[in-house]
């Protein structure tokens, strides 16, 4: 039987040990800078390089309302812990605007409602222990780098760009991990959810996604995929999900195929094809992308996803107008133009242009397009003022959003047409104007004027059967104003108006 004295001595010893343990802990008393002594209980100094001679074995951001920072935005500072067996406990918020570095035996406890934010790397050589409690968050903007014997328990949230280990490292728990890649760390005992960013763990993702549109405006997607999982990974490939997005940031609420995809797709198929069951919607510019679906073998009701494939964006590559033909034919003193399309998407209008030499083009007219259609559509137009001799016509197609493309020109011979004088082409800037005219009539005058009738320049033209070039130098800038170009010859005249830009 122990005597009263012995019991008294034991109680004194336990009290002394407990007092010593408490003395070796340092807690925050308010928010603030880690290196300011008023941040800590007892107004004691806490360095950002903690060596073996440091008097405390544990530092705690002890209150959920406390917000402590090491460094600031734009001022990078590291927390370097050289003391073995040191404990960092976070119940409030600790932000490190650099890296957290340690040699051996670092213990990190993120308690419920706690948040540890590391703007650079978490880098520990050996024997790292991390406990993220439910409701706690460990956020590493860059990488978690561990060499040996790391045990990470995640029941809350952990995020990092990548987690990289060497030997005997393991993650367990039931929380959430947000990470682009994990290497050198066992995750087979982790029962929570792993979500990737631009890439996701070691999960193979679809790639080389391409699309084509058939005559009925249906989108056919094609991608390649090679599953790289091994039997020891703890995961099984399940299939694919296909997404269609009609604008805004990418999101996962427009799954058009595959909450889970059954055995229609082999695991290793370099020519996987999917046909969107809906027709291309008029006026829309969809974006498609694909990801692979996996299941964790130890928990059948949780699924994981690969990185997204490249996306096919029809707003950047609009569906083309499919032409069937474009013809020009001289009839009497006019030219008849005919063309037809098989499909049109977002087609606002056509512009007909003509040229005498295939270099300088005049706008003849605009013809409204059909908008969106997958049916044969025919168009025609008669030019009652064509050029004489050989000339050229071409089509310009413009979408609703202003995007356009040209189609190859066609030639027509108007050898029977005689026209005394005409303006062939005009090019201009704010300071001058280049005018090309064809004149066959004596006494023709070229007049350039403004809307008030003030003469900017006038010229007498020679009687010649070819195109002449006249340069008009402006005495001042006419930017934003309307300039009139007029040809006058006996009873024949040709007049054009141009807005100087």
What's the SSE blueprint?
Blueprint lengths: L3 H20 L1 E3 L4 E2 L15 E2 L7 E4 L5 E4 L8 E3 L5 E4 L2 E4 L3 E11 L4 E4 L3 E11 L4 E4 L2 E6 L2 E4 L2 E8 L5 E3 L3 E8 L9 E3 L11 E7 L4 E7 L10 E11 L9 E3 L14 E8 L7 E10 L6 E3 L6 E2 L8 E10 L2 E22 L6 E12 L3 E7 L5 E11 L4 E11 L6 E8 L3 E8 L5 E6 L4 E6 L3 E10 L8 E8 L2 E8 L2
Parallel strand pairs: 1-4, 2-5, 3-6, 4-7, 5-8, 6-9, 7-9, 8-10, 9-11, 10-12, 11-13, 11-14, 12-15, 13-15, 14-16, 15-17, 17-18
Antiparallel strand pairs: 19-20, 20-23, 21-22, 21-24, 24-25, 24-26, 27-28, 28-29, 28-30, 28-31, 31-32, 33-34, 34-37, 35-36, 35-38, 38-39
What does this entry look like structurally?
The protein is built from one helix and 39 strands. The longest helix has 20 residues, at 4-23. The strands form six sheets. The protein has an 18-stranded parallel sheet that branches. Strands 27, 28, 29, 30, 31 and 32 form a six-stranded antiparallel sheet that branches. Strand 35 (445-450) and strand 36 form a beta hairpin. It is elongated, with a radius of gyration of 38 Å. Helix content is 4%, strand content 53%. The chain has one helix at residues 4-23, and strands at 25-27, 32-33, 49-50, 58-61, 67-70, 79-81, 87-90, 93-96, 100-110, 115-118, 122-132, 137-140, 143-148, 151-154, 157-164, 170-172, 176-183, 193-195, 207-213, 218-224, 235-245, 255-257, 272-279, 287-296, 303-305, 312-313, 322-331, 334-355, 362-373, 377-383, 389-399, 404-414, 421-428, 432-439, 445-450, 455-460, 464-473, 482-489, 492-499. It has 501 residues and is mainly beta.
């Amino acid at each position: 039987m122990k005597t009263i004295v012995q019991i008294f001595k034991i109680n004194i010893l336990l009290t002394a040990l407990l007092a010593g343990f408490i003395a070796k802990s340092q807690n925050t008393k308010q928010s603030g800078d880690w290196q300011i002594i008023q941040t800590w209980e007892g107004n004691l100094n806490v360095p950002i390089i903690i060596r073996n001679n440091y008097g405390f074995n544990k530092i705690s951001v002890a209150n959920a309302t406390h917000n402590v920072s090491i460094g600031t935005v734009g001022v990078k500072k590291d927390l370097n812990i050289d003391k073995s067996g040191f404990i960092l406990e976070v119940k409030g918020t600790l932000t490190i605007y650099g890296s957290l570095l340690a040699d051996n035996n670092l213990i990190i406890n993120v308690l419920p409602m706690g948040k540890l934010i590391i703007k650079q790397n978490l880098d520990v050589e050996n024997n790292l222990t991390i406990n993220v409690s439910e409701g706690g968050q460990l956020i590493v903007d860059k990488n978690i780098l561990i060499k040996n014997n790391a045990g990470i328990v995640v029941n809350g949230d952990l995020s990092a760009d990548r987690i990289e280990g060497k030997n005997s490292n393991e993650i367990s728990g039931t929380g959430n991990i947000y990470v682009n890649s994990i290497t050198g760390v066992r995750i087979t005992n982790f029962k929570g959810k792993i979500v990737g960013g631009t890439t996701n763990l070691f999960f193979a993702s679809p790639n080389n996604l391409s699309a084509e549109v058939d005559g009925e405006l249906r989108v056919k997607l094609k991608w390649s995929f090679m599953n790289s999982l091994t039997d020891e990974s703890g995961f099984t490939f399940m299939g694919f999900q296909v997404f269609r997005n009609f604008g805004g940031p990418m999101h996962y609420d427009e799954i058009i195929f595959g909450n889970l995809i059954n055995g229609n797709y082999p695991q290793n198929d370099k020519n996987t094809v999917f046909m969107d069951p809906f027709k291309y919607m008029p006026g829309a510019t969809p974006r498609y992308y694909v990801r692979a679906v996996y299941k964790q073998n130890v928990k059948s009701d949780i699924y994981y996803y690969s990185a997204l494939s490249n996306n096919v964006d029809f707003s950047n590559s609009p569906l083309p107008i499919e032409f069937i033909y474009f013809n020009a034919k001289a009839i009497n003193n006019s030219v008849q133009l005919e063309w037809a399309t098989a499909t049109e998407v977002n087609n606002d209008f056509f512009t007909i242009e003509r040229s005498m030499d295939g270099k300088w083009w005049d706008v003849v007219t605009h013809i409204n397009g059909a908008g969106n259609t997958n049916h044969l559509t025919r168009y025609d137009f008669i030019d009652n003022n064509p050029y004489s001799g050989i000339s050229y016509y071409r089509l310009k197609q413009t979408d609703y959003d202003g995007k356009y493309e040209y189609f190859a020109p066609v030639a027509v011979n108007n050898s029977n047409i005689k026209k005394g004088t005409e303006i062939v082409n005009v090019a201009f800037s704010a300071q001058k104007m280049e005018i090309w005219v064809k004149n066959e009539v004596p006494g023709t005058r070229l007049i350039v004027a403004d809307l008030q009738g003030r003469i900017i320049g006038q010229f007498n033209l020679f009687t010649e059967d070819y195109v002449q070039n006249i340069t008009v130098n402006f005495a001042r800038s006419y930017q934003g104003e309307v300039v009139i170009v007029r040809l006058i010859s006996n009873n024949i005249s040709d007049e054009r108006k141009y807005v100087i830009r």
